[in-house]
Amino acid sequence: MIVLEFTTFLGRFHPLFVHLPIGFVFLAILLEWWQSFKKPKKINPLISIGWFLSGLSTIMAVLCGWYLGETGLYEEEELFLHRWLGIVLVPIFFVGWWLKKHYSSFPKIVQHGFNILIIVLLSIEGHKGGNLTHGETYLTEFAPEPLKNILGAKDQKVTKQFQSINPDSIKVYDDLIYPIFENSCIACHSDEVKRGGLNMAHADSLMFGGSNAPVVIKGNAADSEIFRRITLPQKSTKFMPPTKKVLTYDQIKTIEWWIDQGASFNATIADVEVSKSMKSVLLRQYGLNTEPRPWYEKVRILPLDSTKISAIRQQGFRVNILGEEIPLLDIQYTGSDLTLEKIKTLEVAKNHITWLALSGTNVKNEWLSGISNFSNLTRLELDHTVIADEGVVYLKGLKHLEVLNLYATEVGNASLIIIKELPELKRVYLSKTRVVPEDGMNLDNDNSKLSVIITAKD
Ligand code: HEC
Q1: How far is the CA of 196 from the centre of ligand 1 (A)?
Q2: Residue 160 domain-assigned (yes or no)
Q3: Rounded CA gap, 248 and 42, in Å?
Q4: Do 279 and 195 share a structural domain?
Q5: Could you report the per-residue pLDDT of 1-33, keeping only the tens digit for each?
Q6: What are phi and psi of 283, to 5 degrees?
Q7: Is residue 405 part of a domain?
Q8: Predicted structure pTM score
Q9: Does the pLDDT value for residue 113 go beyond 50?
Q10: What is the pLDDT of residues 256-291, one digit of tens each?
Q11: CA 154 / ligand 1 centre spacing (Å)
């Protein structure tokens, strides 16, 4: 629209005009102070003229400022005070003009008091205006730390840190997307101020879109107006947000991911696909670890009775409790005097043992039958023993076994069938065994979750 363009053109003169009243009135005040030292009978008429010119130029600044505000490129709430204080300044300047014209009719204290009042008001007004164009932290951003504290400047912190919270309890929209909108967009896209006809405060109003069309196309960020606006060159007049609360790379990536994943308002992080790059964004930006947690962190179990632990220790086992929060056990035996009886004493801790190391012991194939029902066993070390395929058979039922070390044992290809069937197995060591290296590697290729560590026989 031509009219709108012309008023926007006028609006751009605001920054030019705002400096005039400041210059005029400061000069007038300086002149007045200078003269009050010299105590002349009549004060210089330039002083009241200075106040008059300040009033006139403030009218110009207010007019241009009004049009600039109407472009909608400023946050309504912040604009309000700046706009109205500017308007109030006009009559104040003219009162000043009148006061200075009748200088001797008022006590000096009134005259000086009025000067101080205008300096304070102008400072507030100038600061508010500066914040609108440069952002709230502009003035204090590089201030020394102690000064920052005095001025009450806080660093903008947009994101919350979840840490240790389960990905399936975090909602993509409510917890990640909406806070970004709230911080950078909703000041201009709400129930009250719907710039461009767009209200981003609610799910349905967001999906309804702006005055032109929908702004979110589910599953397609590239075609979504919202995404286009935040990824335009920042110089573009269509770039969003037009304020200083520009989105970070990670925030833009998060919005893109949300739209590409279907722009759901209910989905949790566990419901959607998290690509590798998104994983690092979530970790960096929100401290959210989306890697699957090891089984032993998920087990809920009461600690084992301490007398039972002592009984196991008496058999020569070294016993460690994983941690305060995790009462699972890490058990190790070293030496060559292991017996079936000793292994049987472990039965009392069958739900508590999560790591078991029998490396280098004289453990026999049949004895492994005693550990086949250890329900939370995640790591089993049998390296440097005589364990063979007959022993591996007993490991079939270990539903949570993640690491199996069979390095330098007698196991052969027959064990591969059992190993393949272990549902949670992530790593298996098979070097220096009877397993044919090529066959061992094939296992790796068949199952992307499993890595097989095997080297050719030397
Ligand atoms: C300071 C005010 C302000 C802020 C903050 C702001 N916008 Fe806008 N927005 C506008 C104005 C004014 C328009 C209308 C003019 C235009 O289309 O450029 C608009 C238009 C839009 C439109 C086009 C709507 C349509 O259908 O025409 C989209 C999309 C949009 N904004 C997205 C955003 C997003 C996303 C954010 C936050 C990252 C944001 N805006 C922050 C002022 C703002």
Answers
A1: 6
A2: no
A3: 61
A4: yes
A5: 456 678 888 888 998 999 999 999 999 999 999
A6: -70, -45
A7: yes
A8: 0.66
A9: yes
A10: 999 999 999 999 998 899 988 899 998 888 888 877
A11: 26
Ligand 1 atom showing the smallest separation from residue 181 Cα:
37
Q: Would you say residue 162 lies in a domain?
A: no
The answer on 362 and 272 residing in a single domain is no
Domain boundary, last residue among 151, 181, 210 = 151
Smallest CA separation from ligand 1 atom 36, residue: 185
Strands in 379-381's sheet, in edge-to-edge order, are 318-321, 329-332, 353-357, 379-381, 403-405, 427-429, 451-453
Last residue of a domain, one of 95, 124, 151: 151
Residue 161 domain-assigned (yes or no): no
Distance 70 CA to ligand 1 centre (A): 14
What's the CATH number where 386 sits? 3.80.10.10
Q: Judge if 264 and 175 occupy the same domain.
A: yes
- Centroid of ligand 1 to alpha carbon of 194 (angstroms): 9
Output the residue whose Cα is nearest ligand 1's atom 18.
238
Task: State the first-to-last Cα distance of the chain, in angstroms, to the nearest integer.
Answer: 83
Could you give the CA distance from residue 182 to residue 371 in angstroms, rounded to a whole number? 55
Phi then psi for 404, rounded to 5 degrees? -130, 120
Is any ligand 1 atom within 6 A of the Cβ of residue 198?
yes
Report the nearest-CA residue for atom 22 of ligand 1.
196
- State whether the beta carbon of 229 lies less than 6 angstroms from ligand 1: yes
User: Residue 283 C-alpha to ligand 1 middle, in angstroms?
Assistant: 29
Are 303 and 282 found together in one domain? Answer: no
The domain in which residue 23 lies consists of 2-151
Nearest CA among 30, 37, 311, 289 for reference residue 163? 289
